[in-house]
Amino acid sequence: DQCLACICEKESNCRPLPCKWDKGSDSCGYYQLKHVYWKDCGSPGVTLEDCAMNKQCSERCIRAYMKRYAARCVGH
Q: What integer is the mean pLDDT of 14-43?
């Protein structure tokens, strides 16, 4: 929870920012989620924008993404 709070603060001052173009794709919401990240986390919500603007959905996405890829980080 502390890690998510830190990321939220860094990415958006923990506000639901509208999508904006950033390095080749849109970044949206509290955590500045990108479409490829949203797809990797299981595409929660109706759309990327829908999930990104909802803090709880965004956090579910991030947790799912971390769970999916955490095993690759063991020992690194």
A: 96
Q: 9, 22, 26, 50: which one is catalytic?
A: 22
> How many angstroms separate the CA atoms of 32 and 49, rounded?
10
For residue 35, give the nearest of 12, 19, 15 by alpha carbon. 19
Q: How far is residue 46's CA from residue 54's CA, in Å, rounded to a whole number?
A: 11
Considering 11, 26, 40, 50, which one is annotated as catalytic? 11
DSSP for 24-67, please give it.
TEEEBTTTTB-HHHHHHTT--SSSHHHHHTSHHHHHHHHHHHHH
**Is 11 one of the annotated active-site residues of the chain?**
yes
- Tens of pLDDT along 43-75? 999 999 999 999 999 999 999 999 998 877 766
How high is the pLDDT of residue 75?
64
Is residue 1 annotated as part of the catalytic site, yes or no? no
